[in-house]
Amino acid sequence: MYVPVANWALMVACIGLVLGFRSSTNMASAYGIAVTLTMLVTSILAFSVARRDWKWPTWLAVMVFVPMAVIEVVFLAANSIKIPSGGWFPLAFGGVVLFILMTWRRGRGLLSERLKADQIELLPFVAMLATETSMPRVPHTAVFLSPRYDSVPNALLHNLKHNFVLHEQTILVSVMFQPLPRIAEGQRVLVERVGHHFYRVKVFFGFMEEPDVPAALEWCEEQGLEIDPNSVSYFLSREILLPTPGEGMALWRERIFEFMFRNASSAANFFKLPANRVVELGSRIVI
Question: I need a labelling partner for 39 at 20 to 30 A (CA). Which of 157, 179, 215, 242 fits?
Fold first, then answer.
């Protein structure tokens, strides 16, 4: 998979590595540690995949991967004497990357917990709106993207709170990535009519595909949901994080996560939403 940001970062890192070590001889120690540690981590991950995804019995996975891991541990121990002469670099670099990944994972978990505490179940909410006769309906279609299929998107709640309107047709879209490289176009969407002009749509993509939500929604017509692309407004939630001392992570680590979250690529660009039809509704979240 080609990820432009990752490829450019790797290029810059490789250039910096060559300039820092100056010769392949100086890089030998770092190379030995990096290769043997990569081999060991690969065996551990392969064991996990064999047990979890391939459904191998434990005894078979142990027989296949443990002997390889033992050999790799021996190689790693032999290369450990090279740590002072350059082997420290892949360990330090890997530690920084691991710290960033774990901070992102922990921060996303905290954010999910905060959002989950305020979520409202979708079906009772729609039933309540059906009895609310004073809520005006405006023309066209509103599409709300949300990862939580059974709850009300925050953007919808904010739209009702501040604008006091519903659209003629409201579609709640959840994008789901499957453990397959590509999804057949005929299996791209699954439409469910909730009632009272509300629809839930699951959109499926493979891990090799670039998600294009507007193009995928065109397949909803085969399941009875007609969407005019020229009359759709896409509503997204944008959270503004407020790091605070207390529960969760250390304050300095929360600030790092807030910086990463603020500079992450937007959902509108990732899902190829038309820029002139995107509405972002923000909220402040204390983590």
Answer: 179
**The model's pTM:** 0.78
Whether residue 253 sits in one domain with residue 133: yes
The reply to whether 16 and 109 lie within a common domain is yes
Q: Work out the pLDDT band at 2, boundaries 50, 70, 90.
A: low
Which residue, 53, 87, 116, sits at the end of a domain? 116
Average of pLDDT values for 42-69?
A: 92
* pLDDT bucket at 165, cuts 50 / 70 / 90: confident
Q: Are 182 and 207 in contact (CB under 8 A)?
A: no
What CA–CA distance (Å, rounded) separates 120 from 209?
32
Q: Which domain holds residue 234?
A: 122-286
Residues 100 and 239 in one domain: no
Residues 181 and 259 grouped into a single domain? yes
CA angle 257, 262, 263 (to 5 degrees): 100
